[in-house]
Amino acid sequence: MASISTTSPPPLKPFGWLTSLFSVMDRYIASELIMPFLFGVGAFSSIGVAIGVLFDLVRRVTEAGLPISIAVQVFLLKLPYFIGLSFPMSMLLSCLTVYGRLSSDSELVALRSCGVSIYRLIAPAIVMGLIVTGITFAFNEAIVPAANRQASNTLDAALNKKEPSFREQNILYQEFQNVKQLNGDRERVLSRIFYAKQFDGKQMKGLTILDFSQNGLNQIVASEAALWNTDQKTWDFFNGTIYVVAPDGSYRNIIRFTQQQIQLPRTPLDIAQTSLDPGEMNIAQIQEYLSLISQTGNQKEIRKLTLRIDQKMAFPFACLVFGLVGATLGTQPRRGVGRGTSFGISLVLIVSYYLFISICEALYQFDILSSFLAGWLPTLIGLVFGGVLLVRISR
Question: What's the pLDDT score for residue 360?
Answer without folding.
Answer: 93
